Amino acid sequence: MLTLSTDETPRPLKIREDGVDRRHQGDRRRSSVDMRLRVGLWYQYHRSTRAGEFDPLPRNPYTRVKLLEALMPEMTKYEFAHRDTGASLPASCALTYAVDFVWTQSKLGCNAAGEPMAVYTISALAEYLVRTFKVALIDRRKAERRSAAAATT
Questions:
Q1: Residue 109 belongs to what domain range?
Q2: In a domain, 151, yes or no
Q3: Is 111 part of a structural domain of the chain?
């Protein structure tokens, strides 16, 4: 039989004011921008298409358009600039350049048998973007705070 004790000792309260303000610490992310871009593009493609890593990704106009549509939401999280001039470039243009390049190179994004596979193609796109452009992650948290502060004034 289970008996309840009425003289339980209270748990000690955790003091949250331990001198560390977690809101003002720096960026805790450890991955490089190129890794975040590659993984982010893959997950976005997977969410949009439900394709697996080793599903074929044929090089035809229909697949090209679907790939551009699927990856665009992830691309808007980054800023792209020309390496030589430093001029800013819209994410849609950078993605179009990358897809055009990979589509014209028959060996990029393929497995050992020469068949284009989803994960290899996405990795090739990310590699092209990192090698061709200066890629920077947009910190949405700061932008949202600034726009909220501007709206209240």
A1: 40-137
A2: no
A3: yes
CA distance linking residue 107 with residue 111, whole number of Å:
9
Scan for tokens 């390049």, then name that residue: 101
pTM, whole model, 2 decimals? 0.74
3-state secondary structure the chain: CCCCCCCCCCCCCCCCCCCCCHHHCCCCCCCCHHHHHHHHHHHHHHHHHCCCCCCECCCCHHHHHHHHHHHHHHHCCEEEEECCCCCEECHHHHHHHHHHHHHHCCCCCECCCCCEEHHHHHHHHHHHHHHHEEEEECCHHHHHHHHHHHHHC
Q: Give pLDDT tens digits for 24-81.
A: 666 666 789 999 999 999 999 999 999 999 999 999 999 999 999 999 999 999 999 9
Domain count, the chain: 1
Asked, for residue 12, whether it belongs to a domain, the answer is: no
What's the one-letter identity of residue 153? T
On whether residue 146 sits in a domain, the answer given is no
Tokens of 119: 């994960």
